[in-house]
UniProtKB/TrEMBL annotation:
Keyword Transmembrane: yes
Source species of the chain: Seriola lalandi dorsalis
Occurrences of domain G-protein coupled receptors family 1 profile (ranges): 22-295
Record-linked Pfam families: 7tm_1
Annotated protein name in UniProt: G-protein coupled receptor 26
């Protein structure tokens, strides 16, 4: 192993550790807090967590073994099973992110009719589609024997070498797979979250106008207080932009290099560096480690649940249903309708406040 392979192995090991720990914490919070289970977004987060956990215990360790041994890990049948999971779990997780963005768009743009527009039945139907969509692509790839160990990525996944006989069919399949998963999800994320940002900025501007009118009336207000109000307005607008950028940015940074490498591999005869292939695969894996923080652990209810569980484990204070209920009631509105952990619906206050 050279220095690059050692660094890649350490990176994959770190991603496995963070992904397992953070997703298990999300799963514990979901199982322990009844209020989280009642919320429609909780179903999408549960599905995303399931995909991330399964990816962390099946595909990531096998990639680590491939990097360490510099060879094919396991038998051909076993590698095909893992390759099936790679396509299925990656596709499923992307579509789950798209479903979450649609849910939060409805929550912010249509807060008064949210519960009539997005119900548990609708969430189950959406999840059913993500599973059927993912199963179709992964099943076709496996039945056509297009999955196997790919040395460029040091993992069991779609393999060009096994699909040489298919030629055009494999190219069409790969382009369709990435178009209907990565590209579709990216478009949905951009459209929904940019609309959310537009609504949030509108309400930020409305509150800013009210604040400025109030400051004008308070002629005797101290200059430091006036400056603090102006600074808070600026921070509010910046937080809104940063949070929306996080949702879209993490998706683009983690998945774009891998998808582009896949497409270039189909049409470009120039060999791709194995170090770049492994790095792009590691970036795709890192999305499983970042998702718990982006979608769950930084939100109000999850933070409170983690704090209560930590207090119980450390025996700082008793954890009972009444205390948990009080925390849930305090953050129920924030987590049902917010776009991010501090977004408020238009009927209350704007994003970032």
């Amino acid at each position: 192993m050279d220095a690059a392979d050692i660094a890649a192995s350490v990176l994959v090991l770190g991603i496995i550790f963070v992904s397992l720990l953070s997703n298990v914490v999300v799963l514990i919070c979901f199982l322990y807090n009844p209020e989280i289970r009642k919320q429609v977004p909780g179903l999408f987060i549960l599905n995303l967590t399931f995909c991330n956990l399964l990816l962390s215990v099946s595909n990531m360790p096998l990639t680590l073994v491939g990097l360490v041994t510099m060879g094919h890990p396991g038998g051909s049948v076993f590698c095909q099973i893992v390759g099936f999971l790679d396509t299925f779990l990656t596709t499923n997780s992307m579509l789950s992110m798209a479903a979450l963005s649609i849910d939060r768009w409805v929550a912010v743009v249509f807060p008064l009719s949210y519960h009539s527009r997005i119900r548990h039945r609708d969430a189950v139907i959406a999840l059913g589609y993500t599973w059927i969509h993912s199963l179709c692509f992964s099943t076709v790839a496996t039945c056509r024997s297009w999955v196997g160990y790919h040395h460029l990525y040091a993992s069991c996944t779609l393999c060009n070498a096994r699909a040489k006989a298919s030629g055009t069919q494999f190219i069409i399949f790969t382009v369709a797979l990435h178009s209907l998963t990565f590209l579709l999800t990216l478009i949905v994320l951009c459209v929904t979250y940019l609309k959310v940002l537009k609504v949030a900025r509108f309400h930020c501007k409305r509150i800013d106008v009210i604040t400025m009118q109030t400051l004008v009336l308070l002629v005797d207000i101290h200059p430091s207080v006036r400056q603090k109000c102006l600074d808070e307005q600026k921070r509010r607008r910046q937080r809104a932009t940063k949070k929306i950028s996080t949702f879209i940015g993490t998706f683009v940074v983690c998945f774009t290099p891998y998808v582009i490498t896949r497409i270039v591999e189909l049409f470009c005869p120039v060999p791709i560096s194995p170090h770049w292939g492994v790095l792009s695969k590691c970036l795709a894996y890192s999305k499983a480690a970042s998702d718990p923080f982006v979608y769950s652990l930084l939100r109000h209810q999850y933070r409170k649940t983690c704090s209560l569980l930590a207090n119980k484990v450390l025996k700082r204070s008793p954890l009972n249903s009444s205390s948990l209920r009080m925390e849930n009631n305090a953050g129920r509105s924030d987590n049902n309708l917010n776009t991010t952990n501090n977004i408020q619906p238009p009927t209350n206050k704007p994003l970032g406040q």
